[in-house]
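Next comes this protein.

***
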Amino acid sequence: MKLIFWGFLLDFLDFNLTLNGFSIDILPDFVGWLLVLFGARRMREENERFARMQPAAGVLFAVYLLSFLLQPFGSIDLGGSLPAAALVLAVNLVFVALYAYVLWQLVRAMQEMEERYGRAFGAHGTRTAVIVILAVMLLAPLVVWLPFGFALAILLSIGSFAAFLVLLVLLWRAAKAYDSLHSGSGPSDGNSEYHPGSED
């Protein structure tokens, strides 16, 4: 699970280097999604939901890789027409759907692992963080049309930042718990009195 954590961490971090007016992403998102893809592949024998994550993670990897390769050519000008705006909206909705699918399969995998092993993997808190992140992704393009849209966009950005930090912390804890489970350093007989969703 640590590969999945590192993948989302790289997706979260955004550092650009600018030289002579040319900007390049030092920590490209496609590398993060490649790690998520490899991590899901390693975990697929543990739970089938990790296998279900792979196609969507693969598409996101390909999209970010293409975006990175096209970066030197600058952004594409769609002219600001209504069809162009509709196209951008449709692409964003597909992106959010893929992102949501990956995150939700991850949450469900963590929940099922809690039920299987009888110990906490942080599924409840992860689910809450995922809901906040996806809500922000859906609302962010719309708030610019609302009164005080700039202030609302700032609040959404703060909420998304906080939710992603929580997600990363919980993923790291889940990865450590999974490692300890298979190294024999923690209870794993399934007879503990832990109830899924009761603690995070």
Q: What stands out?
A: The radius of gyration is 19 Å. The chain is about 70% helix and 5% strand. The mean pLDDT is 81. Residues 81 and 111 are 45 Å apart (CA to CA).
